[in-house]
Amino acid sequence: MKVNGVHHINIKTENMERAVKFYEDILECEKIYSRNVDGVEMAFMKTGNTIFELFKSKEDVDYKHIDGVINHFAMDVTDIHGILERCKSHGVRILQPVNNIQLDGNILYAFVEGPEKERIEFFEYI
Hints:
Mean pLDDT: 85
Number of strands: 8
Strand content: 35-45%
Number of helices: 2
CATH architecture of the largest domain: Roll
CATH superfamily of the largest domain: 2,3-Dihydroxybiphenyl 1,2-Dioxygenase, domain 1
Strand order of the largest sheet: 1-4-3-2
CATH class of the largest domain: Alpha Beta
Distance between the termini: 36 Å
Number of domains: 2
Radius of gyration: 15 Å
């Protein structure tokens, strides 16, 4: 047995159209698959080797952000300042502006809030 990596990250949404627009227009993901089965909507959005599964259930569920075991996900970017400008121009809430840190290299990072209050980190090696 071998684990090959993460296949996708599931994000619950109250508004599929808004979520797809965010991941397409701001994060430049490609919608590779969508389906609506018995009132359950799914859209798979791909960027690089990462797939986000946007999921809207027909059930009346409380979708408020709960800071659980997984606090955020990070996206590897090449122009952190450019993507933050794009986020600002679309009214995306900036949670933390660009900071510099030394980890396994010199890194810039910043946090924004997605349409369902998911915390997204942008991570750039410089």
